[in-house]
UniProtKB/TrEMBL annotation:
This is Geranylgeranyl pyrophosphate synthase. It comes from Amnibacterium flavum. GO terms for biological process: isoprenoid biosynthetic process. Belongs to the FPP/GGPP synthase family. Its cofactor is Mg(2+).
Length: 370
């Protein structure tokens, strides 16, 4: 059985080979486009690879080994699912590049975000015009490029799935995932601006909707089902994986929301309180806003979304959120969703070894510090 660390290595190798190949094509067109390949490789080096892991274990949960297969056939079968899993990592990278532009984020994983890297290219090359505008435009194109490479890899993986109906089912899930996460990103953008036009309860419901479509389904549920579909999952198996994936994905995003406000920059690779500067109206923030004094609420409304928040102002907002009791409520929500995810695995019609690994991944994605 392939272990998680081995899978991560296989995915990294797959990504490196594809980017090296595409970079050679890019630089043959013109040397000036070389940074697209260089930044792609840097951006896809490392990372937690959660989507690839869930894709693989969704496949493993359903896959029936062919004990009569040759070593070469077994390697080919494994490479097929690794290829699809790698496509999900490329899609995720594209989403992060675009997300950093939308959120005006300066860093990603402790390094300059893509648009900031392209600003540096502009300045070091002596180009005329506005560096920020160049950086954003170039990063949009990089994200688009990563999206096309993601589709290339997914097509390559699915064309090698022996059963065409299985491949079609996986492709439909992939297409649904792309639509839903784009809608979720847009809803996230809307909620940063629409919160004042709705009631507190409706704002919270809408924030939970963002969690579902921007993260829960995209980060856990869809990768699981894509992998399972490739292996020929039946309706009961898909249902079990969805029942597991959605609450776990919700817990994953709620942990992300806590880290976005209280995370250690040395661990997260992003400035402390980054979500506060971006004005994210997360479940955490909305729970806090609903449970503070009118004066504290006014303070939150005045400060949230200010990109120039000082360290003292960030600490003041952090303290306000803590004192509201919102942190404890979000932690309870995480615990509740973890219980739902664990319950979904009990007696699920899935391979025991995969169930054991999925159980271990629960802690990995919900008890993390980055």
């Amino acid at each position: 059985m392939v272990q998680g660390s081995r899978l991560v290595d296989l995915v990294q190798s797959k990504l490196d080979l594809l980017i090296d190949d595409r970079t050679a094509i890019l630089t043959s067109l013109a040397p000036e486009v070389g940074p697209l390949g260089v930044f792609s490789k840097g951006f896809l080096s490392g990372g937690k690879r959660f989507r690839a892991l869930f894709c693989f274990w969704g496949w493993q949960a359903v896959h029936i080994p062919d004990f009569g297969a040759t070593d070469e056939e077994t390697r080919e079968t494994l490479d097929t699912v690794v290829t699809a899993a790698s496509a999900l990592e490329l899609f995720h990278a594209a989403a992060l590049v675009h997300d950093d532009i939308i959120d005006r984020s300066d860093t990603r994983r402790g390094r300059p975000s893509a648009h900031r890297e392209f600003e540096r290219v502009h300045d070091e090359s002596g180009y005329i015009g506005n560096a920020a505008s160049f950086g954003e435009g170039a990063a949009i194109l990089l994200g688009d490029l990563l999206l096309t490479w993601s589709d290339d890899l997914m097509n390559d993986g699915l064309r090698r799935v022996p059963d065409r109906s299985n491949a079609s089912a996986a492709r439909r899930e992939y297409e649904t995932m792309r639509l839903e996460v784009t809608a979720g990103q847009y809803l996230d953008l809307v909620e940063e601006r629409a919160w004042a036009t709705v009631s507190d309860s409706e704002a919270l419901e809408r924030a939970e909707r963002v969690v579902l479509y921007k993260s829960a389904k995209y980060s856990v549920e869809a990768p699981l089902v894509i992998g399972a579909a490739m292996a020929g999952a039946d309706e009961a198996q898909v249902t079990a994986l969805r029942d597991f994936g959605i609450p776990l994905g919700t817990a994953f995003q709620l942990r992300d929301d806590l880290l976005g406000v209280f995370g250690d920059p040395a661990v997260t690779g992003k400035p402390s309180g980054d979500d506060l500067r971006e004005g994210k109206r997360t479940v955490l923030v909305l729970l806090a806003r609903a449970n503070v004094t009118p004066a504290a609420r006014t303070l939150m409304d005045d400060l949230l979304g200010d990109p120039d928040l000082s360290g003292d102002q960030v600490e003041l907002l952090q303290s306000t959120i803590r004192q509201s009791g919102a942190v404890e409520r979000v932690e309870r929500m995480i615990d509740d969703n973890v219980r739902l995810a664990r319950a979904a695995l009990e007696s699920a019609p899935l391979a025991p070894a995969a169930v054991a690994e999925l159980s271990r991944l629960i802690a990995t994605v919900t008890e993390r510090s980055a």
